[in-house]
Amino acid sequence: MIEDEFLAARNTHIPRSCAKCGGSDIEYMGVGEYKCKNCGTLMYDDFGKVRNYLEEHRGATQNEVSRETGVSMDVIRYLLREDRIEIAANSGVYLQCEICKAPIRSGKYCNDCAKKLEHMKKEEIANQHKDNMNIHGYGKATGNATGARRFIR
Fold first, then answer.
1. 71 and 92 fall within a common domain
2. How far is CA 74 from CA 6, 22, 46, in A?
């Protein structure tokens, strides 16, 4: 599954040349939208296509979005897992939290697990900092150094 998500991320069909004039001077405008600097034509990557379709068709299913936009199901799942789009609130279908399997509308983790992971990350960073302080000997004996010897340079 991770390999599928990686391939989906690399395969979001970012326009490299203008569909109208063939020019290669393409400017990223944001939220999946690109503009040709030569002729002004607007183009969309897969995220832009999905986002535009969902704005017009709220509550559309994944199959419907894929069929109507031409964006693969793998890319749509990738966009859901990356929190770029979310499942409609009234949908009976949900993603599962990767840790506790609770139903979620987008992303990889539910709010509770995300908070726990963030707390664990902060603790790990604090512990690494503490370990670095001990390694470098800021005010503490290192190795065989004892007493005043620590402070002699």
1. yes
2. 10, 28, 11
